[in-house]
Amino acid sequence: MEQNDIAVGLDIGTTKIVAMIGRKNEYGKVEIIGIGKSKSLGVHRGVVNNITQTIQSIQQAIQEAEADSGLKISEVVVGIAGQHIRSLQHSDYITRPNPEEVIDADDIHTLCNQVHKLVMLPGEEIIHVLPQEFKVDGQAEIKEPIGMYGGRLEANFHVVVGQVSSIRNIGRCVKSAGLELSAVTLEPLASANAVLSQEEKEAGVALIDIGGGTTDLAIFKDGIIRHTAVIPFGGNVITEDIKEGCSIIEKQAELLKIKFGSAWPGENKDNEIVSIPGLRGREPKEITLKNLSKIIHARVVEIIEQVYLEIKNYGHDEQKKKLIAGLVLTGGGAQLKHLKQLAEYITGMDTRIGYPNEHLAGTNDAETTSPVYATAVGLVMNSLEKGKTRFQEEAVLSDKSPVESTEETGVESGETEQEETSKKVARKSIFDKWAEKFKDFLDNAE
After folding, report:
1. pTM over 0.85
2. Is the distance from CB of 45 to CB of 214 less than 8 angstroms?
3. Helix/strand/coil for 259
4. Across 96-249, where does the E strand assignment appear?
């Protein structure tokens, strides 16, 4: 099978690295044909801090996925998160040289290109430029300006910014593991694609992806991404607290959290006790489940309150910006018992646990649809979207100026199928150019 028909997502997380191979079946659903996962050793809070260990972990995950699928992997799409990610709103406009002609994809490229020239803080780089709404000659709230007449085209953008060094380090790890890096995607965006339905994005929803080292947030309203944030703590701080609070080793703390942990202290009776074997002939420790859930509860409340603060910053309290569909929790941390109830209690918003089966074929096994794999599934989906358009447009496009990645935009806004394909045709080329530019950038960085 050609690498063109399949896509590989590489989710470099703080606790695990997942390589996932997928392809589109004849019904347009995503089929997962191989999965490999390894313990992530060189990543802290979503940022690589040990290159050698990360390379080994990536290779291990890739080999496992190759063995599982019987395919050889050559290029991957990587997710990026970490505490260095920030997002900002920006509006920009262009005056078109010939208002007699209708607006086409080139005009949108020019506009996005202009945003990429924004001056960032030293050491920062723009990862995504996502147009939200367009204005043509002052007429506001246009979702799709292509085909309209107008002299002045302006747009509001959601710009995602990250640290150059962190992005380079990830690129370096992927290259050293013997792989090509075909794209970098923001992890909350990938998870959102895998977990959220179009209706939820229209109604307004916040996706919370609780990982080991970071908690990612993506907010959608009217089908468009409105806000992204990465909060620099996740499930690992809960384990740390259990370790400290109960004076046990990390492995035991992690097991306790998974097997007996609950985010709601009222659940446990006072007499429920777990006995933990002592180290090297020491007495076993007895821990009450009530105490355990009190420790977990304190930490989880902190995480949810941070997320809620971000949601308020976005403007959830305003009537027009209300998130009607509430919260969707995903990622490994979403498997904690009674987390949904606690989130509803703190925020007063409807909450569900998000499984990445929104666009998956029914044939995939249950393991793939665990919240743990939301980001990996999303990366595979993003990559397949791009791959599909690569062939449609090769004939159509000549040399365009390189624009950095606007690849998510088409998928986020609720457009009809034809509009989406016509837009993607144009967009893919931008993306190709950007990927090449990005590869050069990494080559020179060596």
Report:
1. no
2. yes
3. helix
4. 124-136, 139-142, 152-163, 180-186, 205-210, 215-221, 224-231
